[in-house]
Amino acid sequence: MSEVDIVVVGGGAAGLSLARRLTAPAGPGRAVPSIAVIEPPTGPLSSPPRTWCFWERGEGDLDAYVSASWGRVLVRGAHREVVSDGRGHRYKMIRSHDFLPAVTAELASHERVRLLTATVTGIVDSPDGAQVTGTDATGQPMCVRGRWVFDSRPPQGLPPARTTLLQHFRGWFVRTASDRFDPGVAELMDFRTPQPARGLSFAYVLPFTRRRALVEYTEFSPRVLSDDGYQAALEHYTRRVRPLGAFTVTGCEQGVIPMTDAHFPRRRGARVFTIGAAGGAVRPATGYAFATIQRQAAAIATARSAGAPPLPPRPHPRRHLAMDAALLRALATGRVDGGAFFTRLFDSNPLPRVLGFLNGTSSLVQDVALGLHCPLWPMTRSLLELPFLPRQAAEDQGQGQEAFPHAAQRKAHP
Ligand SMILES: Cc1cc2nc3c(=O)[nH]c(=O)nc-3n(C[C@H](O)[C@H](O)[C@H](O)COP(=O)(O)OP(=O)(O)OC[C@H]3O[C@@H](n4cnc5c(N)ncnc54)[C@H](O)[C@@H]3O)c2cc1C
């Protein structure tokens, strides 16, 4: 059995971001820890390729991996259109099929890192370390011991919640025959799509050039659609709502992200922590997780190099989780019209204030200012009833396997 300082289970967004941070120069007198990153062989457990979008002010540490970014955003409500200037914030896109191989290659050349191909099946905690066991690519048993273990394997189920909606989507990478897009503007939400009975739907358009874009149909609703349902929604949007003229589809992406007010554990033992989506990094009201994953990775690396226990920090402030829980409840009960809600949010607030909230970095004063532009009674009612609502398993909310993102998501890039 080999022994290292840190074992990272899962080489996806959270695992590789953490390993990357831990191998950054630690400062005078602080050695880089020895690290094992364990990722299964390509197969059914691998996370499908995906695009990660996030907001960032100015230049960032991950700019080398960014494939596109936008300085302005457009939100289209049923009756009005809002264009906002990011005032220095950019909406950045990183594609997993760029990021993961590049970071893996960087780590492979680092003398303190071992990249192991194996499927982890067990983690046994003890007061001074934890033992990670599994099966390697040839079917042989594998065992590594770490002083600290960070587990990012996607959850196989969801903890009980008061409200769980699914953010589910299918997108087309399109190439149009004529100029149809403004590559300076990310069309973040277009609510002119037919709205589902419960929850909301919108389309978004992320243009790469005047003729190439990712056009995605998204719902926040209790159930995923059938293949035909997504096909029809995208056909309707690209032919009738926002006609693209003649175009070809060069790739497709699809996914499901649970939007839930469930509690995710950050700690699973004296020496075992959960990170990434499994550790609650996904923001309940938006489905965003990538920026939070980066913040957590940086904080863990800082704690370690300071000699402190590297407990991942709380992914989201409690206040934001309460606001998100109220919004999820208001959307799920149909008390707020999602399209009108988000259009007003962008229309009535300066973009940096909205982004502060979405990024989890806004102050109480900024949140109160934001709250004043929300439909007060439905949101207050939803907030006040939260303590009296039981937490139920996703299955009991009728979602079953659909709510388990790993099983449900699928994505294929050109
Ligand atoms: C399709 C999609 C699009 C998304 N887009 C955005 C976005 O634009 N912006 C945003 O902020 N968030 C987005 N998210 C949410 C979130 O950022 C992603 O889900 C992100 O990939 C989560 O990172 P993770 O490391 O927790 O999980 P993953 O990236 O899924 O990584 C988990 C890793 O664990 C490995 N693994 C699985 N089983 C085992 C095992 N038994 N042993 C060892 N390793 C194992 C997998 O192979 C994988 O590499 C998106 C999610 C999805 C599903």
UniProtKB/TrEMBL annotation:
UniProt-listed Gene3D superfamilies: FAD/NAD(P)-binding domain (3.50.50.60)
Pfam families: Lycopene_cycl
Database matches in InterPro entries: FAD/NAD-bd_sf
Record key words, sorted: Isomerase
EC number(s) from the headed UniProt entry: 5.5.1.19
Keyword Isomerase set for record: yes
Region ranges (Disordered): 394-414
A single GO molecular function term of this UniProt record: isomerase activity
Keyword set includes Isomerase: yes
Name of the featured protein: Lycopene beta-cyclase
